Amino acid sequence: MFEKILIANRGEIALRILRACKELGIATVAVHSTADADAMHVRLADESVCIGPPASKDSYLNIPSLLAACEITGADAVHPGYGFLSENARFAEILADHNLKFIGPKAEHIRLMGDKIEAKKTAKRLGIPVVPGSDGGVGPEDDAMAIAREIGFPVLVKAAAGGGGRGMKVAQTEADLLMALSTASNEAKAAFGDASVYLEKYLTKPRHIEIQVLGDGRGGALHLGERDCSLQRRHQKVWEEGPSPILSPEARARIGGVCAKAMQDMQYLGVGTIEFLYEDGEFYFIEMNTRIQVEHPVTEMITDIDLVLEQIRIAAGGDLPCTQEEINIIGHSIECRINAENPETFRPSPGTITQYHPPGGLGVRIDSAVYQGYKIPPYYDSLVGKLIVHGKNRPECLMRLRRALDEIVVDGVETTLPLFRALARESDIIEGDYHIHWLEQYLAGKPAKT
Ligand code: ADP
To answer: pTM of the entire structure?
Structure first.
């Protein structure tokens, strides 16, 4: 087992990793920018190192500074969390070159899944159903119109290097295609330094359903059921739940089995998420994330498996925690991502939290790094914390969620709490009847079911 882990992240996920390290008896090193000197992860870690000024590129993305921090503290492994360097294959290789363990998948798998065109080809090869689309990238030499006609409009132009919903444009009709191609390609070039794009059938009312997987890197792999992340704004998840309100145990076992088998064939190492769109009873692969995800607690609540702790154990050479047959889905869980944003315009609202009272009671979990008097810096994401609720079934979970949302107090900054309080009382949500465009339509004041 590792002796000392450097946590190359900030905010709630840094604290989440720290908790797993404490339980395993592993010493922790926090790193922070000058803007995060007062952060909770810095206060609670055994040691801390300032790695640079506020801008992420100079601190949390600064590989030489992180290596120096490992060197001076004697850390033997690095946990990258999510975002920042978590899906940077080069970072994983550089750590290996310095005899440091990267707590994550093999570099080759990060690289493969980081290119969505390659990822889709791999998925297809491994027997995972994919969204109909162009076979590879669509460049100036290709007849994009012919490919789009064959797929059938509407089509979605997507960036090969995409992430966070950027570099994605819908072409409803033939007239929109050229514009969508150039906009998506320019956006991708600006955001990721890679202009490659591909085409996909645009599904009009799918749900986003993702399968959590865990592999030992030696051909052993499990699936831990699904999360339904269909409530999204600008392709970003807002509310996640598991199990999906619409998936039968048979459908779960079928798609979960396909994913677990694919991970066994790849000899995948660590945690991962295989994302699908689900429409009319069919699954369509869109991408795989090779890291711990923001919404991982939903799976932890319904399987009672600590994903971050298992991720660390497996990175140190440990075995899978159980067999597939031993995994049981227990009750229901919902996670709300509470952001410091105006609940109507979604404009970020950084500032000082003047009053803070986290909710408690049976089945209620808060993953957050804020405290009363904490100043949310303007440089990073606007996540205040995640409220995760568990119940023995969905109605009980919703009941506890409404109660917890009414109890939580976050004053001094605007938050998205009023949105969640309203959502938890909406009849479509209570019935579990929603798809990936529901939330945008609801926010626009349109009837969402059409
Ligand atoms: P990113 O990596 O930017 O998050 P994804 O491929 O994971 O991109 O897609 C993010 C979201 O965009 C999905 O959850 C879904 O809401 C929407 N989306 C992606 N592909 C399609 C598609 N083919 N049809 C309709 N919506 C899509």
So the answer is: 0.96
